[in-house]
Design brief:
Shape: flat
CATH topology of the largest domain: Cytidine Deaminase, domain 2
Number of helices: 14
Structural class: alpha+beta
Helix content: 25-40%
CATH architecture of the largest domain: 3-Layer(aba) Sandwich
Distance between the termini: 115 Å
CATH class of the largest domain: Alpha Beta
């Protein structure tokens, strides 16, 4: 840092230590780094890249839209929603005043996905119960591990002052990290990939903005004066630069000719490069390229299979990180034994109607789903008698007495038909009518 400050001071002293406002040292001092493609890549500028924006948006929105439930362990390990606990309402409604749960979680995930770390200060009542979770921008937080092996958080306030926040009062959602103290910034790690993507987009914009023509030179057989050269350049750019002047016919006088000096975009594989960079960004964020609206390499046979891959490979690590951090910071030691947090992911795996009904039929016929449980999954009201479970008649428990074997007939889900009534002809014990033959 001292070397950077020396070069910055040289800029104002006139010694030329800084080459310009795009000097890498100056860019790094103010929070960014210049990529080899000549693009300043920071967490903020990276969001101007459509692939990065889409990746962050899809992951954060998908994770934040999943219901986050606080459960209590009941008798025999039953899962019971802890609706009476303060944390249940805090996470469901407003983690901080004026900010809904989805918006709050979406912002926290976006911070963690981009910068590698998402922070929220925990405000507590006198008895230690959390009552608010205040989001903090990652750029304002400095994290270090002290000599006591504990993590310390120093937060820079808007007025320039600094405060220390104990680790127990800082909700810290980390991404992939080296020592578990902080997470790596994906933007910093992927600087060159993101820089190349942004440079390619900028090149395309300039290419079409210049009239969709490659750069080149006007060759004159003689020698032009300085004024003539400047006037010729100005006239040519005025007539042939800009998208509105594309495809105009150029008239060259006095034996001049046009020679192309730039590389045509088709030779540089411009479109292929832009398409490849979308896949490259998808790899950095561990997200299927189809989620970035790139279907060129579609590998999933159905939306259900794609959502399953997205859930297990992309979202699940983030969800588990968040659940464990909530349990670590929002629950006291006694509560940790009986309370836990879990996201409901069934909605993401919701199949089409035919597949759902087939699955319901299997669960109902084999006795592990009731009518009302099925209706609840379809957002329907319960019905009277819908809490009963079926059991196939040819099934029995392991260790049943010998001789109590099930019939070998096809499994029946309802009792066998009753014997015909005594008045019915041909019933057992009936005397054949006189008209019947012997």
């Amino acid at each position: 840092m001292a070397n950077i400050w020396d070069r910055v001071k040289g800029l104002f002293s006139g010694r030329g230590a800084i080459t310009g406002l795009r000097d890498p040292a100056l860019v790094e001092l103010f929070g960014g780094r210049m990529s080899d493609a000549g693009i300043n890549v920071t967490e903020s500028t990276a969001l101007t890249c459509s692939a990065v924006w889409s990746a962050v948006r899809v992951i954060s929105e998908s994770a934040a839209s999943l219901p986050l439930i606080t459960y209590r362990v009941g008798a025999n390990g039953a899962r019971i929603r802890a609706t009476g606990h303060a944390v249940y309402d805090l996470l469901r409604d407003e983690p901080c005043p004026g900010v809904g749960s989805l918006v709050w979680r979406e912002a926290l995930y976006a911070h963690a996905i981009l910068a590698g770390n998402g922070y929220a200060e925990i405000e507590r009542r006198f008895d230690g119960t959390p009552i608010a979770l205040w989001l903090i921008a990652p750029s304002r937080v400095n994290v270090r591990r002290g000599s006591d092996a504990r993590i310390h958080y120093t937060v820079t306030q808007p007025n320039g002052g600094q405060i220390e926040i104990p680790a127990r009062d800082m909700l810290h959602l980390r991404g992939l990290g080296g020592d578990g103290t902080i997470g790596y910034s994906v933007v910093r790690m992927a600087r060159e990939s993101i820089g190349l993507t942004m440079a390619t987009e900028k090149f395309g914009a300039k290419f079409f903005g210049a009239g969709a023509r490659p750069t080149g030179v006007l060759e004159h057989p003689g020698r032009l004066s300085d004024d003539a050269r400047l006037r010729l350049r100005a006239d040519y750019e005025r007539l042939h630069s800009g998208i509105e002047n594309a495809h105009r016919v150029a008239i060259l006088e006095e034996g001049m000719k046009w020679s192309t000096s730039g590389t045509p975009p088709d030779d540089a594989q411009f479109l292929q490069t832009r398409q490849f960079q979308v896949s490259e960004i998808a790899r950095w964020f561990n997200i299927p390229a189809s989620k970035l609206r790139d279907t060129s390499g579609q590998t999933y046979s159905s939306m259900e299979a794609e959502n399953l891959a997205f859930l297990t490979e992309t979202l699940r690590p983030w969800l588990i990180r968040f659940e464990q951090e909530l349990a670590c910071k929002l629950l006291n030691p006694a509560e940790k034994k009986v309370l836990y947090f879990e996201h409901l992911v069934d909605g993401m795996l919701r199949a089409d109607q035919a597949a759902r009904y087939a699955a319901y039929a299997i669960g109902r016929n084999w006795g592990w789903l009731s009518v009302n449980e099925i209706r609840a999954r379809e957002n329907l009201e319960p019905v009277e008698g819908g809490d009963q479970y079926l059991q196939p008649l040819n099934m029995q428990s392991i260790g049943s007495p010998a001789g109590a074997s099930a019939p070998s007939s096809t499994p029946a889900l309802v009792p066998a038909p009753l014997a015909p009534p005594e008045s019915a002809p041909g019933a057992v014990g009936d005397v054949p009518p006189p008209s019947a033959g012997v």
